[in-house]
Design goal:
With 410 residues, the protein is α/β, with parallel strands linked by helices. It has two domains: 180 residues, 3-Layer(aba) Sandwich (Rossmann fold); 196 residues, 3-Layer(aba) Sandwich (Rossmann fold). The strands form three sheets. The chain has a six-stranded parallel β-sheet, with helices on both faces. The radius of gyration is 23 Å and the shape is elongated. 50% of the residues are buried.
Length: 410
Amino acid sequence: MSVRTLDDLLSEGVEGRGVLVRCDLNVPLDDSGAITDPGRIHASVPTLKALAEAGAKVVVTAHLGRPKGGVDPKFSLKPVATALSEELGRHVQLAGDVVGTDALARAEGLTDGDILLLENIRFDERETSKDDAERQKLASALAELVAGPDGSGGAFVSDGFGVVHRKQASVYDVATLLPHYAGTLVAAEVKVLEQLTSSTDRPYAVVLGGSKVSDKLAVIENLATKADSILIGGGMCFTFLAAQGVPVGKSLLQEEMIDTCRTLLDTYGDVIHLPVDIVVAAEFSADSPAETVAADKIPDDKLGLDIGPESVKRFTALLSNAKTVFWNGPMGVFEFPAFAAGTKGVAEAIIGATGKGAFSVVGGGDSAAAVRQLGLPEDGFSHISTGGGASLEYLEGKTLPGIEVLEGQG
């Protein structure tokens, strides 16, 4: 990736200069509105701290959830502003709107080193509009918050890797209006993904979980020709098992993907590895009694909620000599203690490989959340990505609009 970075911007000097930063602060909240996994907030700190300490007037834009049809208090960034203030050790103001009178007044009142967080960018429907002109209008309003009256002086730093696969106003269009730079997080993420797709040490193992085959189909097709083994767990494994003619009971199943999975198994059967045993229960519930059965013996009245211990052993054996590992998606419903052993066991195997010198990347919010929730050491992995969808699209070989636009000069 040939782009200007945060270091380039800092070397130019930012004292007294307005800098717009697109962060990914889309953290999960519980029913009370409390943040349950602050990983993305932690990841945003280095860039914001460096800019504030260098004297920039920092304006941060980010989204939370998927509000429909404008402002929704449930998706306010208020808890994020509080958490960000604690992480940075300095007050982070929260504007009462996106690019309205409050945002403008607060931006004009910033002094060197101040940080202003705009309200949820998706409260403005132009952010995700398919109309280029509408997105450009919002991008212009964002740029005006940091640029001088004549449009000079401002800068844009892209540091929300989790959104760079979206052609949105705060990700793509604003970079066409301001001098633009890759933040610490985006630069690090792209460097890691370049390593996964180009200079990959072998054996190369890919671990895929999550619920839907359709979400991972393109990455399976692309990596099946590059990886030595693809280990499949999570809800998506049942569609593959069904493609083998195995009964899956009440387990999650994408019937429309069965033929596709059959073709994948016929084509890459020596690379794709499926579970050999499954932890099942009568209901999708934390307290539903668990039972381990062979993968081809799932009862009609049960559903699979985790891979079994024998599968963990086999997957561990495949991971033990890996030199490169990419993991995206949990092996089961790790949020329920009775169905967390598969995810934990495979994660520990990846940590073991990392300890022996393997380069390991955890991609995706659910996988990262599992690492933290299960009490596993984050430094046991070479890199924990903040952008699941963006990571997958990069590994699929797709062009990411938010990265492509950074490569243009401006």
